[in-house]
Design a protein that fits this description.
By secondary structure, this protein is α+β, with helices and mostly antiparallel strands. It is built from 9 helices and 12 strands.
């Protein structure tokens, strides 16, 4: 996996442009991969989180740029203002496995922060992104004084754990075709915009890292799906279009 080390540009939180962006942030408490729009939280909780985001600088990151790396210590909690982010683990032999997908209005990097230890995974942008870092001191102050926010993040951790358990079972027992179909459904559920057909320029390596198979096997399976009319693939750029979402969700093992 390519690891860009491009210099990040910081947009200061006191600029007019940044203030305007912060005003329209809507907090979306989400699971990392498949389910989102869990925004049932007290108005005070939303306002407090918005205020924290509004005061912070925004990191402008290029595609394939690391946000944080495994074994480092958290400085705070991250909030995606624009773009797409993946969290992933790397095997000692260099193989990568994607553990989470995050979109605009998602928090990520909070398990290690709440656990008080080092990151067990890394985070990298899937496209050019803008990410806000809320320092851990400010975050914990809010969690301690706002029980609704605390309860919500606890639920997010539990949902994350259940999701990882389901993921392990699927990797152990599902066929390659079923796993690739599930990965495309996961991507669609996470990143599809209302009223639009889902498409994404995702590398075959990243898709293989979600599925847990070799890129060559992923490419062959995508080719089969294209022949069956389940997906379409642009030759230039390799963009994948999901054309038969329902059939992918109903694919037999």
């Amino acid at each position: 996996m390519t690891n860009n080390t491009a210099t990040r540009t910081h947009l200061k939180g006191n600029s007019n442009e940044q203030k305007n962006k912060s005003k329209v942030i809507k907090i979306d408490f989400s699971k990392s991969r498949t389910t989102y729009n869990e925004s049932v939280i007290s108005e005070n909780g939303i306002n407090d989180l918005q205020k924290l985001s509004a005061k912070r600088d925004v990191m402008v990151c290029k595609k394939n740029e690391n946000v944080y790396k495994a074994n480092s210590y958290p400085k705070g909690i991250y909030f995606v203002m624009k773009g797409k982010v993946k969290t992933y683990k790397t095997h000692e032999r260099g193989k990568e496995f994607i553990t989470g997908l995050h979109k605009e209005e998602n928090f990520f990097g909070y398990p290690a922060l709440l656990d008080g230890g080092q990151y067990t995974d890394s985070a990298m942008t899937l496209e050019d992104s803008e990410i806000c870092l809320i320092p851990k001191e400010d975050f914990f102050e809010l969690v301690y004084k706002n029980s609704e926010v605390s309860r919500k993040f606890t639920k997010m951790l539990l949902d994350n754990l259940r999701e990882k358990e389901e993921q392990i079972i699927k990797l152990a027992y599902n066929s390659v075709r079923k796993r690739v179909a599930d990965a495309l459904v996961t991507l669609s559920n996470c990143y599809k915009k209302d009223g639009e057909q889902f498409s994404m320029n995702i590398s075959r390596q990243d898709l293989a890292s979600i599925v847990g198979i070799a890129p060559e096997t992923t490419i062959r399976t995508l080719s089969d799906f294209k022949d069956e009319g389940l997906v379409d693939i642009k030759t230039r750029g390799g963009i994948i279009f999901v054309t038969q979402y329902d059939k992918l969700t109903q694919m037999r093992n």
